[in-house]
From TrEMBL:
Keywords assigned by UniProt, alphabetized: Cell shape
A single GO cellular-component term on record: plasma membrane
Gene Ontology biological-process entries: regulation of cell shape
The protein, known as: Cell shape-determining protein MreC
Entries under InterPro entries matching the protein: Cell/Rod_1, Cell/Rod_MreC_2, MreC, MreC_beta-barrel_core
Residue segments, region Disordered: 283-303
Function description: Involved in formation and maintenance of cell shape.
Biased composition (Basic and acidic residues): 283-296
Classification via NCBIfam families: mreC
Domain Rod shape-determining protein MreC beta-barrel core, first and last residues per copy: 131-275
Family per similarity comment: Belongs to the MreC family.
Amino acid sequence: MNVVGHSPPPFFKRGPAPLARLTFYLALAVMLMVADLRFHTLEWLRIGLNTVAWPLQRLAQLPLEAGGDLGQYLTRVSTLQTENQELHTRQLSTANMLLRQRHLEDENRQLRALLDMRSRQPVGGQVADILYAARDPFARRIIINKGLQANISGGEAVIDDLGVIGQVTRVFPLTAEVTLLTDKEQAIPIQVERNGLRAVLAGAGAGSMELRFLAANADVQVGDTLVTSGLDGIYLPGLPVARVIKIDRDQAFSFARIFCEPLAGVERHGLVLVLDHRETLPPRPDELEPVKESGIKGRGRKP
C-alpha cells in the first residue's frame, strides 16, 4: 500500500554521462587555471583555504613533533648523565691533586714571604715546618722539624712573615720545641712604635698577650703597634710583635691592664723562620771586673 502524498523513488536515476561530466570538469579546471594564471582570481580563495587548513596541519604534525622532541630530550638527558658521571669521576680522581696544589701554593706564598723577611734581617735563619703542638694543653708550644742536625740551639728567635712567633726553648736531635709568645711563662721586651715607650709583654694564654708593669697614665693607646726593643740580646730590634686591643685604667691600681693580640700567625701558619743568634752584645757594667782602686790612687802620688 502506498502512503498518500509520497511517491516511491525511481528505480533507475540517470544523469549526464560520465564522459560528459569528465569533459565538463576538465574544461572548468582548465578555465580556472587560465583565469588564475592570467588574472589571479583565485588568490583570495587560496589564502582563505590556507588560513583554514593551517591549524589542521599543525594539529596533524603535533604527534610527530612531540615524538621527535621526546626522543631528543631523552637523548640529551642520557648524554648529560654520561658526561656528568665522567666529570664527577674525573673530579674525584683529581681532588687530591687539587687540594695538594692549593696547599703547596699557600706554602710557597708563605715561604717567599719568609725568605723576603730573612733578606731584610741582618742575621741568617732557617725555614722550618711546624710538625705538631706540644702535648700539654695548657702550654702554647709547637714542635718544628729542625733540631741539632740543623744547628738549631736554644734561645733562638722564631718569626714568620708577619712578626715574632716565639723562641726555641728545647732542642732535640731532629726536632726542636718553640714556646709561643702567648704562653703564660713567656715574656719579651718591647717598645711602643709610636713613642718608643719600653715595657715587657707577657703571654696570657688563649692566643692573647698582656702588657705589664706600666703606670695607669702611661702613653699607650688602643691600636698601638708593639715591636721588639732588642734589649734582651735575643730578638732583633724593630720586629713586629703585637697590637693593643684593650686598656683598663683603674685608679685603684698602680698599673694599667693592657691587652694585646699578636700580629704574627702565632697559632695559624705551618712554616716559620728560625733566626740565628745575634751578635754578642758588650757585657753589662756589673759583669766587668772592678778596677783596682790602689792602682788609681797610687798614680801621680809622691812617695
